[in-house]
Amino acid sequence: MTADRRPEQDPRHPDEHFEPYELDASIPWPLLGISIALGVWGAATLFDTRRHEERAQVERVEDTQLATGQAVEPGHALFEASCATCHQPDGLGIRGAVPPLAGSPFVRNGPELVANIMLRGIDGPIRVNDSLYDGHMPSFASVFTDVEVAELASYVTSRWGESNRALEAAEVAELRGRVADLGSFRGGAGVAEDTGFALDEQPTFASGTSQPVSPEISALIFEGRGGQWSCASCHGDLGQGRENTPRLAGLPTDYIVKQLGDFAAGRRINESMAVVVAELSNEEKRALGVYYAGLRVPSNARPDLGGDLERGEQLAREGDWSLTVPSCFSCHGPSGFGVATEFPPLAAQHAPYTASQLAAWAGGQRTNSSLDLMEHISSALSAADRRAVADYLASLPPVPAGSGDMLAEQGEGQ
Amino acid sequence: MSSETEQDVPAKPASPRKGRLVKSLIFAGGGTLIIAALGALLYESGLIPGLQRGDQTVASGYFQPPSNDEMPDGAFGDSVRRGQAIFMNTATNASQHVGNGLSCANCHLGEGRQPYSAPMWAAWGRYPQYRAKNDQINTMEDRVMGCFTFSMNAQHSVSGEPPPHGDDIYRDLQSYFYWLASGAPNNTQMEGGGFGTVPKTELGYSPERGQEVFAANCAVCHAGDGQGQKDINGRYVFPPLWGPGSYNWGAGMARINTAAAFIQNNMPLSRPGTLTDQEAWDVAAYINSFERPKDARQGDMTVEETRRLFHDGDDIYYGQEVNGVLLGVGTPDPVRPVGAPE
Amino acid sequence: MNNYLPLSIISLGILAFATLMLVIAPGIEMARPEPPAGLQPYTVEEQRGRDAYVSMGCLYCHSQQPRAPEQAPDGERGWGRPSVSADYFYDSPHQLGTMRTGPDLLNVGARLPSESWHLTHLYQPRAIFEWSIMPAYPFLFEVKAEAEEGDVVVALPPEFAPAEGVVVASQEALDLTAYLLSLDRTYPAPQDGIRDDGYRPRGDAE
């Protein structure tokens, strides 16, 4: 090969043997620049994705542990996130509704009692100093780990009691095992009786007899009938629900009856439920509502949609007024326990169910909300917001349902 | 090399000038691509803070007060936090001075931020101010004292009176308002301040028509009897609109025009602006056609004297007969002050 | 262009690099054989049902791989958290699938835990969803004049029930249902589980 491969010919008059040729040319710098820039970009993207993966890992760990904050003072962050909604950040409670922690005989008796109450919850009246409180403290057993219960109980008693003892997680684990099957304390008298602590004079618990379930209704719930599947086969033996099958335990009777009616009338579209309600009489609907309203089951809901829990908490507690979205709690009650029959409990509902219902409202597949309130709120939320708020609500303790009667009374009495 | 080619082939169809043009175009295009790629990289990595999405959410056109996570630390921040707690939950955090079931936040929505819900960022720069209501210059403290006296019906509270001048309650509330108004202009009527107005309608207002509007739009939350609803722990979630648990006859909300504006601009919650002017007037008239605690200024005067002195010419049913009942007499005093221990 | 050597070296190099990054490295990363604590091996019955699932080609319409929220709203559909490689520990061959003519089934046992629902649905999907395009599987069932001891009777709305007698599930239908109910990966994902978390835009706004 010669050094110069060009044919020796006048290029102005190419003959038929003309061969196209290519000159040796250096790569033009724009091309080089583009390649290098793309390379850098690609490498950066790789790095970026790695960062996302790491963050997702961290979030997954946090979600699993339901960690609400690893602040310097662990109990404090947990208190702010989970207790302050009712007991207030300063521990003074709410006049006439939520008992104070400051100066309370229950807190003065040390962290074991506080941990016990957190694990079991209280139903029925208690007396704190001169005031009577007839409310419901939910059980946090399904929400907090032993470590978290220990941290919170120690924090509460060191701040408002006179104890400086730090409760150990192992003690909480032992306590949890002991009280697992006992259910809620029955009023202040129940606390005093069960634990033997001195708690001044406590009102007695007027036991509301829960409605016995008739054999027919029981068969409907657990065995099904004719062309119907049993309720329990999807909603669980205790109405606890799973994934996008909702938790029914503790929902108000009237709310359940309304929903069953809406399925039958096509105001709420769910093919499986349409089959089930087709053969239910009104009496049966009510009996089922009473049964599920009276169930008390620990939460099995978990925030597993990968939503941003902080954003979810913000939406639930403050709302986002730039979207004209008031907080969930401004209608569904300050702890998401529901208000009367129009605003059902949201706490401990399964995240996929909550998110799918919000999406259904936004998409027009569910249209049975009063004044179209939920339709508008859901449409204003982005998909990420819906996941976030559904996840946050799933992380809350369940509504401390009493008997169906008791709830109905509360709802109507006010 | 390339220049050599250009010299050697002068008669090629493409002129040298055109070649150079193409070349510079390639260079320019390449440069643009590189800049775009680097720019995208910078944007992605968040190195251009001004371009981030978070800063573009100012959409409403109203003044944007700071959000809760911007609360300062230190003694002032603590005061702001206490002020917000009082604002949100007045019956608990100013328990000695609240004689009904209301909180500041019931009328000032969005933690006192919502435009046309008498937002505190707009109110802060408007005081001191002359008010005909008491014919004197009112400071912010005087104004809030008025809220306790009328909207929170302090005479039925444990102390029987609003917090005295100089009380820490005022200090903390004013810290909160001052902080909400960070960056707001002083002594200026701000867009979104107050409750707004609803134009008068031809038909005027009527409680009878309002009753239907109420049943259709309000009863879901405030209950059919207007007494609000509580959660299972007995906390008010929806405030009572009339009767002993609501604001008294001296409150601004007892005037039908004020209530109509508040309702149209804020209710139903999450769906403001859905009621027509007529509906807003009618339902405001309905809500304010029931008896409520008596005007705190009445003292030993008769209802008619009080009406002439304080309510003359207002859109209010005070001192008038509605459905055969003289309004303004006041609901009976409670057996025990509101919130007193049993 | 006569310089074949550099061309071959470069192209082979690219191929080798791609193989390393796309085949060998992921292989090493995923070759961590450890079943998650919440995952049980299939029982004999479930395994038989799994064979039926394979032989009837369910795979052609149903995937078994829920996606991350950033990629698809599978979580809101109730299809469960994004799957990780360990979720398929006992699946050989896995039934990932690529078509979603019907819903994803990896967590169908969690979201539809009712055996009787599944039997009805297999017998006649239109008995529940009138718009369903899923084929019916009546050959998995038997119409008998009367249910015998141990028979599982299928609950059917009147318009889909036979005029005479009852519909009874065959063993194959029960196996298939058992397999479907065993599809439940709702336990927390193992912390070292590999999953594609998708692309999360900055600010997480949408």
TrEMBL record, chain A:
Keywords: Heme, Iron, Metal-binding. The keyword Heme applies. It comes from the Bacteria. It holds the Pfam family Cytochrom_C. InterPro entries: Cyt_c-like_dom, Cyt_c-like_dom_sf, Cytochrome_c_Oxidase_Subunit. GO terms for molecular function: electron transfer activity; heme binding; metal ion binding. Gene3D superfamilies: Cytochrome c-like domain (1.10.760.10). This is C-type cytochrome. Residues 70-160, 213-296, 307-397 form the Cytochrome c domain. Transmembrane segments: none annotated. The keyword Iron applies.
From TrEMBL, chain B:
InterPro entries: Cyt_c-like_dom (IPR009056), Cyt_c-like_dom_sf (IPR036909), Cytochrome_c-type_DH (IPR051459). Keywords: Heme, Iron, Membrane, Metal-binding, Transmembrane, Transmembrane helix. One of its GO terms (molecular function) is electron transfer activity. The chain crosses the membrane at residues 21-43. This is C-type cytochrome. The keyword Transmembrane helix applies. The keyword Transmembrane applies. It comes from Roseibium aggregatum.
From TrEMBL, chain C:
Residues 44-184 form the Cytochrome c domain. InterPro entries: Cyt_c-like_dom, Cyt_c-like_dom_sf, Cyt_c_oxidase_monohaem-su/FixO. The chain crosses the membrane at residues 6-25. This is Cbb3-type cytochrome c oxidase subunit II. Coiled coil: none annotated. It comes from the Bacteria. Keywords: Heme, Iron, Membrane, Metal-binding, Transmembrane, Transmembrane helix. One of its GO terms (molecular function) is metal ion binding. Pfam families: FixO (PF02433).
